[in-house]
Amino acid sequence: MKTHGFDFCGARLSALPSGGLFWPDQGLLVVSDLHFGKSARLSAVGGAQLPPYETRETLLRLEADIEATGAGRVICLGDSFDAVGLDAALPEDDRLWITRLQAGRDWTWIEGNHDPGPVSLGGTHLAEVRLGPLVFRHIASDAAAEVSGHYHPKARLALRGGALSRPCFLVDARRLILPAYGAYTGGLSCKRAPLCDMMGPDALAILTGPQPVPVPVARLT
Amino acid sequence: MLERAGAPATVLIAPTGGGKTLAGFLPTLAELARGGHGGLHTLYVSPLKALASDIKRNLLVPIEEAGLPIRVEDRTGDTPSSRKRRQRADPPHILLTTPESLALLTSYEDAPRMFAGLQRVVVDEIHALAESKRGDQLMLALARLQQICPGLRRVGLSATVEDPAAIARFLAKHPDPCEIVQADPGPNPDIAMLACDQAPPWSGGGAAYAIPAVLEQVKRHKTTLIFHNTRAQAEIFFHNLWLANEEALPIGIHHGSLDRGQREKVEQAMVRGDLRAIVCTGSLDLGIDWGDVDLVIQIGAPKNVKRLVQRIGRANHRYNAPSKALLVPANRFEVVECVAALEAVKAHDLDGDGRGDGPRDVLCQHILIAACAGPFEADALYAEMTSAGPYAGLTRAGFDACLQFCATGGYALRAYDQWQRLMQRPDGLWQLRDPRSAVRIRQNIGTIQDTDTLKVKWRGRGGAPLGEIEEGFAASLTPGDTFLIGGQIVRYAGLRELVVEVTRDPGRKPKIATFNGTKFATSTQLSQRILRMFQSGDWGALPAHTAEWLRLQSAVSRLPEPGRLLVETFPQDGRQQMVVYGFAGRNAQQTLGLLLTKRMEELGLAPMGFVSTDYATLIWGLDAVTDPAPLFDLDRLEAGLDDWLAGNAVMKRTFRASATIAGLIERQVGGQRKTGRQATMSSDILYDTLLKYDPDHLLMQITREEAMRGLIDFDRLREMCARVGGRIDHVALDRVTPLAAPLFLEPGRVPVRGSAEERLLQEEITKLMDDSGLAQITV
Fold first, then answer.
1. Closest chain A CA to residue B763
2. How far apart are the C-alpha atoms of B173 and B386, rounded to whole Å?
3. Alpha helix segments (H runs only) across chain A
4. B679: closest chain A residue by CA
5. Considering only residues 682 to 711 of chain B, which have any Cβ-Cβ distance to chain A shorter than 8 Å?
6. Exposed (0-12), middle (13-18) or buried (19+): which is B73, by Cβ within 10 Å?
7. Residue A160 CA to chain centroid, in angstroms?
8. Fold of B9-182
9. Which residue of B has its CA nearest to A52?
10. In chain B, fewer beta carbons within 10 Å around the N or the C end?
């Protein structure tokens, strides 16, 4: 797996192709905005019935990242479920799968704006986590050295003969925002409000994909 | 028409200007003149909103002159909602509408009351509707109406077509007979190629060389319609025409990407006779009476003889005078195509391709519409649907799969049993589980696919938008780039709130905006004529410059030959290019492009994309193809066909259209787009998920069917390979050839997302690192 290593507020971090963040010194894997159960929620309110496979697709990726990194610690950075109570409605297979992933690992669910935390599942439930120099929470605040999610940042880059658009990490001196990890998630261009106003002028976007690559936000279209 | 007033179904075929619309209404006027009919009597359906209001004007004249007690109203997406409500409570005698508005009407619970007493339905421009899903949807709606009013009589009004019986089968209630009335086709058109002092260029689609000659023709005629095949070409031509228009003749432009207000202004000016010429696209193809047109000029190859004949009919609305038309080839290849088309028109050799059974995504939408109107019985709905011409061959299993999709999503994984969209009641009837979902279903009625477009406005000034451009094109712009819209060169200033802001910038050479207008494929018959002309070596009918160009091609490379396949390779634009002259038609060439790029990706040749025309496919990539022969192993290619479904842009585009029509993806309406768009995942994700977990899902089947019918045309590819039988002529050159040059200006380039994209991304990153010293920066 090709990753992109970078320094953030004194921590050496690694951006994974999937949109996960790995902190080798701490053996920590961070993923944000899993949005499990999105298709179920949409159909419950009378909307379209999307292919009901996003939970297993997301779990498959998560399992692969945990195996590849050997993470002993996992933080789900909020909006792990698409709505309150969906954790209880999770199919039994998927629930067992999550339990299997949790076995032997320190697992933390951070509260999101869609879910206050999947209380029916094991693991620790917290509003935020401090670890070394960094603080982890769902929505960015004014604090420095903060790792957050919520906005589903996406980057668009003009290439020879076309453009390419991918979910991305956003990082500047104070702040790191993770892309959405879930299978059924759209994105917000980092050139649009509020993302464009949140980051410093020298912010970098790290594009996800087979080889994560850093691009100055100023160079994006 | 009066003689046949009682027939259950009639198709009237007449050239433009034959007064056929009024003829279609004659029985209605006669029946209503007798008085005593309460409520709706006749429904008129046309593909264009503008046509409905135009017909209303024309109908009101005889009605008012004769003092008939007949109420005529139109109803389209633009009708105010207060009037729409009143029309449902108190319908007029004659209602003029569009297929989408009619489908919406049939979705209301009170539809049986509104349509009670309906006697006749008149379908205008049925030849155009019969070629699209809009027509399929309309026929399903008529089947619904026929249930409500068993005595309903149908009349279809059609321009000249090659197969009137197919139109008749399309219109009539299956298996009822349908009468075909052929009006006198009138005198042969007066049609020729426009003679110019200057020869057309070797490539390009602008036809700028012909501007002086076209202006001269405009001066000599009262009103000239100047047709183009694409909106981009219309823009460029209009721009150049104005630069040369020293006498400032009033000339307007009209195409589907222009703001509605601007289009209406042009239409009104034209009806008043204020304009001497209108540069236009297919948006003026349908039969609105635009005043006294006495000349039609077709810029660019006509692609399809039938459509050419219909366009020519727009000139001269007097029945007995020949229509006058001039063809202007935009480049030398098109000279060949124009000459072939002229021969075909003279021989009355119209072309056309059968359309096959009605597509099932439209069927899914219709089931949801039926559920909105009230609980239904599956058997009855199936019987009703198979009475629609396009769906006469629908099997019960095919119907059941659609019903299942509408009810539960139809997934192999039974996930939605508790949240079904439709559920079966204990008495066996189907109904919406949640009645509120009717609102969402109604918002998504229709089969017209909008591409994602962005409005273009002047920066720092209010006022109406100039028009729209495709989002993909907007994404490729960087501030300072210039492009053409509404006949003006504008400079891209930036994107704000999903509006493209531009400033004025005359004088710089503009980029060519891509608009997703209808792109016609050259018909099989026309392609065959062209190939025969190449093969004959008798180029007497061609102008000297074109014959010379073909000779040049033979000298530099060679001309495509029967029973052989010509493949050229050369570097151009910093990439390695390969051109395959298959003459298999646009769709098969497109498939060839898909399959070849897949093989090339496997062989590590890093293809980046391709573009296809009716006669050739151009593929570009990072590495040169030195031995093309192994690429054309048919078995290998065919084996790749299934794999290839695994993720190319064309399939995803097809999936997106079908999934939207079938109701899996909801269109975003009104202000929703602005706020909700960012959070919406792309349909590509759904496609990838289904491919991985549920590849036999109904929508994947429909996507394959659609692609097989429309975009793949594998039969012609197989036929081409059989014809060639491995006789491949590879010509490696150091520069582009005369015959290949036009391909570089073709719109509709399909990107290949493979290793080349990663390589380019790395290239760009390396450049960025070097440019900015980024490698040294740590945040």
1. A159
2. 9
3. 38-44, 54-69, 92-102, 195-198
4. A186
5. 682, 685-686, 689-690, 692-694, 697
6. middle
7. 30
8. Rossmann fold (3.40.50)
9. B415
10. C
User: A212 with A87: CB under 8 angstroms?
Assistant: no
What string of DSSP letters covers B180-238?
EEEPP--SPPEEEEPP-SSPPPSS-S--GGGHHHHHHHHHHSS-EEEE-SSHHHHHHHH
Residue B668's pLDDT band (cuts 50, 70, 90): low
Nearest-CA neighbor of B667 among B517, B447, B515, B471? B447
Whether B758 and chain A come into contact, CB under 8 Å, resolves to yes
CA of A113 vs chain B CAs: smallest distance (Å): 14
| Whole-number pLDDT of residue B771 | 63
Tell me which CATH homologous superfamily contains domain B190-346: P-loop containing nucleotide triphosphate hydrolases (3.40.50.300)
Q: Which two tokens stand for residue B536?
A: 């004959």
B451-458 long-range CB contacts below 8 Å, 24 or more apart?
B451/B516, B453/B257, B453/B516, B454/B495, B454/B498, B454/B499, B454/B500, B455/B498, B455/B499, B455/B500, B456/B485, B456/B490, B456/B499, B456/B500, B456/B502, B457/B499, B457/B500, B457/B501, B457/B502, B458/B501, B458/B502, B458/B503, B458/B504
Whether residues A46 and B774 touch (CB distance < 8 A) is answered with no
Residue B662 has pLDDT above 90, yes or no: yes
| Encoded amino acid at A208, one letter | T
The stretch B56-68 carries a mean pLDDT of 88
Question: Over the stretch B339-357, which tens digit does the pLDDT of each residue have?
Answer: 989 988 888 888 766 677 8
| Strands A146-148 and A175-177, sheet pairing | parallel
Distance CA B407, CA B662 (A): 12
Rounded Cα gap, residues B168 and B172, in angstroms:
6
Other Cβ atoms less than 10 A from the Cβ of B127: the count is 26
Mean of pLDDT over chain B: 83
Cis omega (within 30 of 0) for bond into A194: yes
* B165 Cβ contact partners less than 8 Å away, ≥ 6 residues apart: B180
According to DSSP, residue B514 is labeled: P
Look at B779 and A173 and tell me if their CB atoms are within 8 Å.
Answer: yes
Examine domains B9-182 and B190-346 and report if their fold is the same. Answer: yes
| pLDDT above 60 (res A118) | yes
DSSP state of B632: G
Per-residue pLDDT of B682-721, as tens digits, reads 788 899 899 999 999 999 999 888 877 666 677 678 778 8
For B258, which DSSP code? B
**C-beta atoms of A221 and B475 within 8 A:** yes
B608 close contact with A: CB closer than 8 A: yes
Domain that holds residue A155: 4-219
Q: Write out pLDDT tens, residues A153-207.
A: 999 887 765 667 899 999 999 999 999 999 888 888 888 888 888 999 899 999 9
| Contact call for A51 and B409, based on CB within 8 A | yes
Contacts of B152 (CB under 8 A, 6+ apart): B118, B119, B120, B121, B142, B145, B146
Question: Which of A54, A91, A158 is nearest residue B478 as measured by Cβ atoms?
Answer: A158
Residues in chain A closer than 8 A to B434 (CB atoms): 45-46
Domain count, chain A: 1
B338, B304, B357: which is closest to B586 by C-alpha? B304
CB B116: neighbour CB atoms within 10 A?
A: 13
**B413 reaches A (C-beta below 8 A):** yes
- Angle formed by the axes of helices B133-148 and B378-385, nearest 10°: 120
Residue-wise pLDDT for B180-196, tens only, equals: 998 877 788 889 999 88
Q: Domain map of chain B by residue range?
A: 9-182, 190-346, 453-504, 557-760
In three-state secondary structure terms, B480 is coil
Q: Give the phi and the psi of residue A75 in degrees, each rounded to 5.
A: -115, 125
Q: Do you know the residue count of chain A?
A: 221
Q: What CATH number corresponds to the domain at position A144? A: 3.60.21
